[in-house]
Write a structure and sequence with these properties.
The structure holds 2 protein chains of 2 kinds. Chain A is mainly α. Chain A is built from 14 helices and 2 strands, in the order H-H-H-H-E-H-E-H-H-H-H-H-H-H-H-H. Chain A has a single domain, classed as Orthogonal Bundle (ABC transporter involved in vitamin B12 uptake, BtuC), CATH 1.10.3470. In chain A, strands 1-2 form a two-stranded antiparallel ribbon. In chain A, helix 1 packs across helix 6. Chain B is globular. Chain B is an all-alpha fold. In chain B, helix 2 packs across helix 16. Chain B folds into 2 domains: about 350 residues, no CATH class; about 70 residues. The chains are: A mainly alpha, B mainly alpha. The interface between A and B is large, with 48 and 46 residues.
Chain lengths: ~350, ~450
Amino acid sequence: MLPDLLHAIVLLGNYVVVPGLAYASQLALGALGITLVFGILRFANLAHGDLMAFGTMVAVLVTWQFQAWGLGLGPLPTGLLALPVAILAASAAALAADRLVFRYYRRVRSAPIVLVMASVGVMFILNGIVRFIIGPNDQSFSDGARFIIKAREFRQLTGLEEGLAIKTTQCLTVAVAVMVVAALFWFLQRTRTGKSMRAYSDNEDLALLSGINPDRVVAITWVIAASLAAIAGTLYGLDKSFKPFTYFQLLLPMFAAAIVGGIGQPLGAIAGGFIVAFSELTVTYAYKKFLHYMLPEAWEPAGLAQLLSTDYKFAVSFVILVLVLLFRPTGLFRGRLL
Amino acid sequence: MTVSRRTLFAWLAIAAALAVVGAGQSWSLALSIANLCLISAVMALSVNIQWGYAGLFNVGIMGFAALGGLATVLVSKPPVPDAWAAGGTGLLGALLAAAAAVALTAGLARLLPRNRWRAPLLAVCLVACYLAVRALFDPAVDAIEAVEPAKTGYLGGLGLPILFSWAVGGLFAAAAAWVIGRIALGLRSDYFAIATLGIAEIIIAVLKNEDWLARGVKNVTGLGRPVPYEVDLQRDPDFIDRVAWLYGSTLEGLADDARVAALRDLVVQSSGLFVKLCYAGLFVAVLAVIFWLSERALRSPWGRMMHAIRDNETAAGAMGKDVTRLHRQVFILGSAVAGIAGAMLVTLDGQFTPASYVPLRFSFLVWVMVIIGGSGNNQGAVIGGFLIWLVWIEAEPVGLWLIDALTAGLGEGHGLREHLLEAAAHTRPLVMGLTLLVVMRFAPRGLVPEHRGR
């Protein structure tokens, strides 16, 4: 009985927990950017997915160049080395978009919906640039050691029948996400600039009265959001692959994560990322084998025992989004009701 | 309805652009573009009804258009008797069971006292109902999809003329909007936008995966037509006589052999043009009816009330207007128009391909049309539909030509030149984004601004 239970746990670990942790970290980083822009600039930035795609594209191109030069990090993917360039490029793109597009609407105090529409325009342009430069197809740029532990090695090591594979990129994603989030929280809580950002988000008028420079706060917000987007996008691309349209589609789960956690609440965005990612995976996972270990033979299900087909994963984030908006519009962490 | 000088100028520009395409590329292409312009105009009216009249930011047009497309399949395709025999009853049973399950959960939600057991009990009930419905649903679907999967593998439709599907498409979209409106309306405008974006993706996911409904990504081809087929026209002596009469002067001076050959070519050409003209006639009729109706609605007390709500929701609510209810009305009406346009588009294509629905082309592009044309003004929306579709279609050849001209100095086979020529198709979103931002910034009320004050 005990090995069966162990098998079931390892099985879930392999197909739900490990990929879930990586996916959740990627979503959380994206959602953090969205929640910061939402909290400080007070509009839903629909261009965030394409900003992610833009940053990742730069990472892909730089990685290819490094690979051509023979530069690498050994077992770690070269993409990591390209990340600083990607962050710079994404920040520059975000600042340019703000200077050329968003600043005007902020000055004339447009309704938030006008800013959302302007972000649609920015989305079109970023999308066009990305497709123009790298094309709409799948690009793989992951290199280095593919696995930290392979399923076969795990089986030999433990003597179990089920294997547990951990990809380098998954481990890396979680590690980078933890570091980035720690740095972000230190910045927001401890530094003067971070405090001024939180003050601006809580009460704009009061912050202005206290002498906080709004242009600086806005610029720093864009740089942080774009950096997070570039990091999240590159990690997602390393973990899976880079395809511009997929990044646009990530918009929905990322917004779901930001809203579930509460707008303007960084901690909430992270929790939201985990809730969305694990809901998606647990609902679309086929439990046939899991039940095979857990149930007596006579009860075994005939089908895949899958609650929802994998293609409906958007439905999961959407349902979460709607439920939260209907029953707890401020989100789990009591964010702002915009 | 007044026609301003601006409108006249815009129409002249559109006509000139189409004429340039006709003379420069081909008249058949110009007509194809004009047909798609007409459909785009209907879609733009749909967005204008929602955004221009009531200020609803619905970015899920794609989903409603796809539902309209689904209607063409379900109305015009002949039923597949084998599939109905294999799983029809099972499927209907499952759908009935699903309805019963929803009713049961709703009833339970009303009856249960509000304590801490309520939420878990409801969740357990929902999951149990879901599993029970799936147990009925899955075998029926498997049976249906196993019937000649290469040719059918779905239930088929009603086998009615395809023109009915335009109305049915509108009804489908309206029904979906009714359900979605109950959930998503009343949210703040940004949230509503995100919600509709998500719903559209879900509708497309359903259409791609539920093969029993419309074959999913295997597509449904060979849909019926409301207009004659080219081959039939080419064999029709009446049609040949008319063509001969029409081109009498060109055919006059030719020798007999050359005359016959020339006539054959002309008949082939004219049959294509004639079919496209027939479509254009139908589309113009639909556009005119919808345009007239929405103009009437806009000028009625209902339209003025909508404007009041759009301009100041709080004030309108304080005056006793039921804002959410009116938003729902306008959302349903607008979505129905999108559904009609979607059905028209699939009819024109002659096939239903769920994978072709992408948000950039179906949701956001239509938005650009309305913003640029002039939101709140139906004439503006129609002009925007024409203009933006022209730009969208012609951005590729023009971009290609520009790149070709600019990089000609690099010489054939140069890497950069090859890449740029290949990427020319992606100038479209770039041009669209720039146009949108420039118009929003410098002419925020669009090319043909809304008429204010009365």
